[in-house]
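Handoff note, outgoing to incoming analyst
You'll be picking up this chain. Sequence as last confirmed:
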Amino acid sequence: MVHQRKRLLGPILGAFAAASLLVGCGQGEEQGQPPAAEQPPPAEPEQPEHGEHGEQPAAPEPGQQQADAEGTFEPFQEGATAVTYDEQQAPPGSTAKVRTEALPDGGQRITTEFTGLQPDREYGAHVHTQPCGPSGDDAGPHFQQEADPVKPSVDPAFANPENEVWLDFHTDAEGNGQATAEGAWQFEGRDDANSLVIHQEHTHTEPGEAGEAGDRLACLTASF
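Most recent structure output, in case you need it:
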């Protein structure tokens, strides 16, 4: 009987060992499989660069105020915003204000207001290229959307109220006046519209004198 049991246990133990070996091999194969390749995270889209701080400057909305300047005329001194060059026709204490707004069509509306000037008289006024200085000439020539290659510019093809900014006005009995002009002028990205100059008379339009308006009486520094 003992020999018979040994004969029976032998095949059973052999089958068990073979099964264990198969299981071990299967686990080894599973453990030996290379791990699935990790997928890199999706790349973030590159952001466009906008200005010094990465911010995109907003375009002016229609009706949005873009520039506003005002001042009280006084004889020139360092830091003065509003300067008078003729104290009789632009008395110290008189004032000027200018406002610029964007229009729906992409153009500009410029509005000016004046107080305390000579009553009931005509004045000329234009946007000039440079800030105010000790003399009227420091304000430079008129701003022109398309610059006249000939200086001084007195050709009506360039010296006209569409290419330049003309703001002639007439004062009331109190010496107050106002003027508004609208046009397709574009000041963005330019640095040649920096003052409003008051002139002695309304602006001429004839060839050879186009754009002229007499002496420069006063100046208001204003960046458009």
